[in-house]
Automatic annotation (TrEMBL):
Protein known as: Uncharacterized protein
Organism, scientific name: Paramuricea clavata
Lineage: Eukaryota, Metazoa, Cnidaria, Anthozoa, Octocorallia
Length: 124
């Protein structure tokens, strides 16, 4: 927050880089914590397929709602601050109309897929 405010005040490229680096670091830490949490939950229920299925359904619902809320919040903040949100593949002058489908792609898994993913170490 402070780094972003500093960049908005100065518009200095070094302040922007500091903000982006901090943002990447935060996302990386969050992703690692998320993986660890998933691994712990799956390992706790690995011998009980009913519980494992419930865990998979809970994760599906949670991550679907998180992606949608994050996309909506990103659009609202961008509009409020006159910012252009684009993916790396989009030209900078094109405003994205479908934030939730373009920026967040989530594929839910079924209960039968969970043991397969777990055996293939997909949760590591």
């Amino acid at each position: 927050d402070q780094l972003h405010r500093r960049y908005k005040r100065t518009r200095d490229i070094d302040d922007w880089r500091a903000f982006k680096n901090a943002q990447r670091s935060f996302k990386s830490t969050l992703k690692a914590a998320e993986k660890q949490h998933v691994r712990i939950e799956v390992n706790l229920h690995k011998d009980n397929s009913r519980s494992l299925c419930k865990v998979a359904n809970d994760f599906n619902q949670f991550f679907q709602s998180v992606g949608k809320r994050a996309a909506e919040t990103a659009e609202m903040l961008a509009l409020r601050n006159n910012l252009n949100i684009s993916t790396e593949l989009e030209p900078q002058n094109r405003r994205s109309e479908l934030f939730s489908t373009e920026l967040f792609k989530f594929t839910p898994v079924t209960c039968t897929e969970v043991p397969t993913h777990n055996n293939n170490n997909a949760v590591e």
